[in-house]
Amino acid sequence: MSRRSLFLVVVVAAFLGLVPASAVANAPNNEPATYRLVTPIPNIGEAPNGDHAAVLVTQPFFFGVHPKSVSGGGTFTHTFAGGSFSTTWTATELVSFQPYGCGLAPTGMTLPANFCGGRAEIRISIATPSGPVDAILTVYCLITDNGQRPTNAEEGIRLLIPGVINFNKSEGGLNRYEKLA
């Protein structure tokens, strides 16, 4: 190999080393794991019409990936212009879970190694006086292992009640997924 070719290879390799790789905003999700969802305060979602949903886990809440499983529930409060309505909800299916990693708070503070973040999409059943209503609850926790997370992720929840209302803006919350196994 000529000196010129060798120089070109070295320059290209050095340049590629300086170009940032695309940010990995999540951890691998191809192994069995069990998590407990902890929400010490209510998570608030807002609908475009200004209505709010407050969701809190009040029952032990566990879910597993590979294979998928879920159990638990909590309270749901819908606040609207004319008042509010409070009831309970129960998890019925883990639709998906995308982990972001474990051990690093969004502030950069180190957390216990089993405190994890991610995005869990859960099918739930909300108890109402006229019978159960199905919904999709998405819970976001911004804990990571390296500070990288999807750009549109925000701590809190989103709640879609198909054909009724979509609380598609998080107004805050505090969540964590505790990895148990």
Q: Would you mind describing this structure in some detail?
A:
This protein is mainly β. It has one domain (26-179). It contains 1 helix and 13 strands. The protein has one helix at 3-18; strands spanning 33-38, 43-46, 52-57, 62-65, 69-71, 73-80, 83-102, 115-126, 133-141, 156-161, 165-167, 169-170, 176-179. Strands 1, 2, 3, 4, 5, 6, 7, 8, 9, 10, 11, 12 and 13 form a 13-stranded antiparallel beta sheet that branches. The longest helix has 16 residues, at 3-18. The radius of gyration is 21 Å and the shape is globular. The model is unreliable at 1-27 (pLDDT under 50).
Write the layout of secondary structure elements.
Layout: H1 3-18, E1 33-38, E2 43-46, E3 52-57, E4 62-65, E5 69-71, E6 73-80, E7 83-102, E8 115-126, E9 133-141, E10 156-161, E11 165-167, E12 169-170, E13 176-179
Antiparallel strand pairs: 1-4, 1-13, 2-3, 2-12, 3-6, 4-5, 6-7, 7-8, 8-9, 8-13, 9-10, 10-11
